[in-house]
Amino acid sequence: MFKELLLLIAAISSTTLAQSNVTCTKNAYPPPSKDKVPWFTINLDLPPEERWKEVATNRKDQIRNLLDKFKEFVRDWGEFAGKVIDFVDSDLGNLDKTLPYPFAGEIRGMSKYSGLNLGEVVLFNIFYEFFTVCTSIVAEDPNGNFVHARNLDFGLFIGWDVKNKTWEVTEALRPLVVNLDFQRGGKTVFKSVNFAGYIGILTALKPGLFSLTMNERFNADGGFIGIIKWLEGDRSEQWMGFLTRAVMENATSYAEAQFQLANTTMLAPAYFILGGNTSGQGSVITRAREKALDVWEMSSIQEHPWYILETNYDHWAKPLFLDDRRTPGNQCMEKLTRQNVRFAGIFDVLSTIPVLNKLTAYTALMEVKTGRFESYLRYCEDPCFPW
């Protein structure tokens, strides 16, 4: 596996160094109907233990398959692997008792209706804090309408399949992608696209108010430190996915959402990409665990105050040369122009290699003012970047 990865890195290096311009994809929208993501309703009026019953029973086999893939990856660590798996199966479930309402009850319900070990469900809700490599865009058309879109890339360095040239965890994730309509009193509170079994939020829309995506931020003071502190009894920091879930349920404006995302202490660093309903309302919140390091406003970008694009690197620093999705993304947005900001145009940008890559599980498209929400499974055929 490592030899193959080294060859891939060498190929990407030569391609990246030689490439000054990118060929932007055109006419990729709409994708095939078979790639549309199905919808489920999460009734927030139900007790937490009952909210995920339909999702858990419908996708339990797929969740089991993903967890088995993850355990196979862990076993490659050698002797230590057995202890890790034993800890997940016998002890990690105890972490559920430390989680705030309503998340502890929802995780217990997910375990009950999926038939999975409680520790496995807790693990399933932890590892999205660490392995999410994404591209997010907020763009405003000439009429002040916002499109917020993202590619969700997941599974980096978790099981490269040499024969098929795919990431095993990414392949196992796609059958878990579901659209969710969170409702109270029979009315939509917000919409999201999730991996079935995960109760936090990575991509969501509150119709008429704001939209939100989360991208992983790589940092030495990362999520593992936060989780260790939590296990040792320090409950002062918030789980990223629970924070975003609370914001989507409770915040009533773009400004309120931005304040909470910027100022709540978290277990893991992150980028929060936020879109609003008023001209200029787009921002990237660069988070350390303790607080925001920077709030980058779309309206402050002299070159293109009509859109903001974030991958997995601080916007004031250069991206890793092996993983520069920012440059082609910006090139394609400039070629698109503000006049063509709509689902089709943004989908084309997110379909351009390497913005689209072997890790891409889905693309989501959101329009704040209308509440329109679409998501699609994505596949990157060769020649394609592994990330």
UniProtKB/TrEMBL annotation:
<feature type="active site" description="Nucleophile">
    <location>
        <position position="134"/>
    </location>
</feature>
<feature type="signal peptide">
    <location>
        <begin position="1"/>
        <end position="18"/>
    </location>
</feature>
<dbReference type="Pfam" id="PF15508">
    <property type="entry name" value="NAAA-beta"/>
</dbReference>
<keyword id="KW-1015">Disulfide bond</keyword>
<keyword id="KW-0458">Lysosome</keyword>
<dbReference type="GO" id="GO:0005764">
    <property type="term" value="C:lysosome"/>
</dbReference>
<dbReference type="InterPro" id="IPR029130">
    <property type="entry name" value="Acid_ceramidase_N"/>
</dbReference>
<keyword id="KW-0732">Signal</keyword>
<dbReference type="GO" id="GO:0005576">
    <property type="term" value="C:extracellular region"/>
</dbReference>
<keyword id="KW-0443">Lipid metabolism</keyword>
<dbReference type="InterPro" id="IPR029132">
    <property type="entry name" value="CBAH/NAAA_C"/>
</dbReference>
<keyword id="KW-0746">Sphingolipid metabolism</keyword>
<dbReference type="GO" id="GO:0006665">
    <property type="term" value="P:sphingolipid metabolic process"/>
</dbReference>
<dbReference type="GO" id="GO:0016020">
    <property type="term" value="C:membrane"/>
</dbReference>
<protein>
    <recommendedName>
        <fullName>Acid ceramidase</fullName>
        <ecNumber>3.5.1.23</ecNumber>
    </recommendedName>
</protein>
<keyword id="KW-0325">Glycoprotein</keyword>
<keyword id="KW-0378">Hydrolase</keyword>
<dbReference type="Pfam" id="PF02275">
    <property type="entry name" value="CBAH"/>
</dbReference>
<dbReference type="InterPro" id="IPR016699">
    <property type="entry name" value="Acid_ceramidase-like"/>
</dbReference>
<feature type="domain" description="Acid ceramidase N-terminal">
    <location>
        <begin position="36"/>
        <end position="98"/>
    </location>
</feature>
<comment type="pathway">
    <text>Sphingolipid metabolism.</text>
</comment>
<keyword id="KW-0964">Secreted</keyword>
<dbReference type="GO" id="GO:0017040">
    <property type="term" value="F:N-acylsphingosine amidohydrolase activity"/>
</dbReference>
<comment type="similarity">
    <text>Belongs to the acid ceramidase family.</text>
</comment>
<feature type="domain" description="Choloylglycine hydrolase/NAAA C-terminal">
    <location>
        <begin position="134"/>
        <end position="374"/>
    </location>
</feature>
<comment type="pathway">
    <text>Lipid metabolism; sphingolipid metabolism.</text>
</comment>
